[in-house]
Amino acid sequence: MVPNESPKDSPLEQLAAAVIGGGEASNIGSVTGMAMPPIEQWKPAFCGDLDMEIRADGSWWHESTPIKRLELVKLFASILRRESDGFYYLITPVEKVRIRVLLHPLLVIDAEPLPGTLPETLVLTLNTGGQILLDGNHLLATEPRAADAAYVNLSRGLTALFSRPAWYRLVDRLDDQGALHSAGLRFPLA
Questions:
Q1: pLDDT at position 145, please?
Q2: What is the Cα 128 distance to its own chain's centre?
Q3: Cβ burial, residue 75 (10 Å; 0-12/13-18/19+)
Q4: Residue-level pLDDT at 23
Q5: Count of H-run helices and E-run strands, the chain
Q6: 0.85 cut: is pTM over it?
Q7: What is the pLDDT of residues 118-159, one digit of tens each?
Q8: Whole-angstrom Cα distance, residue 150 to residue 66?
Q9: CB under 8 Å to 118, separation ≥6 — which residues?
Q10: pLDDT at res. 27
């Protein structure tokens, strides 16, 4: 894999077209905002470790070089899964490679009420373009490895750490007991 090569010639671009379908309309619940490939159905053999890591700030790196193309980060995020062994893998129909994640693979960059929802439901925007509802399927928890931080559980064993601005938006919404309310649920943060 060559994460920063031209999209016209890249095998990754071909994979993106095959599994994502070329960019459909936004899907709330998807980490990329697009249709997610069916990696749960793919059973490739483990091919080893890939020199790729997701750093604590949410940046993606390959062979000590930052991956700057958002399209490639979104593609990788769409095929990322955390398995029961605690490791993160990129899954394609023909290969499965392990990558390093230093804290959480994704970041929440914004949190705001979804218009027209009763009870009020917060929609969380991810650094990969996806939007997730803070609800019973995506639970909020405090992050013990980072001061004054929280993360949300996502599908495929993934998690997203709240960026500092998104964290402050949550704190502004806390009730008198230090809890956040979304989708009729109470999430204690204090």
A1: 87
A2: 7
A3: buried
A4: 40
A5: 3, 14
A6: no
A7: 999 999 999 999 999 999 999 999 998 877 789 999 999 999
A8: 25
A9: none
A10: 66
Instruction: Identify the burial level of 82 via C-beta atoms within 10 angstroms of its C-beta, where 0-12 means exposed, 13-18 middle and 19 or more buried.
Output: middle
CB-side neighbour CA atoms (13 Å) of 44: 16
Chain segment 49-61, per-residue pLDDT in tens: 999 999 999 999 9
CA distance 87 to 134: 25
Return the amino acid letter for 85. D
Amino acid at 134: L
Six-digit token string for 131: 């939007």
- Extract the tokens encoding 147: 């001061």
Q: Which domains does the chain possess?
A: 11-101 (3.10.540.10), 106-185 (2.30.270.10)
Among candidate residues 153, 149, 159, the one with its CA nearest the CA of residue 189: 149
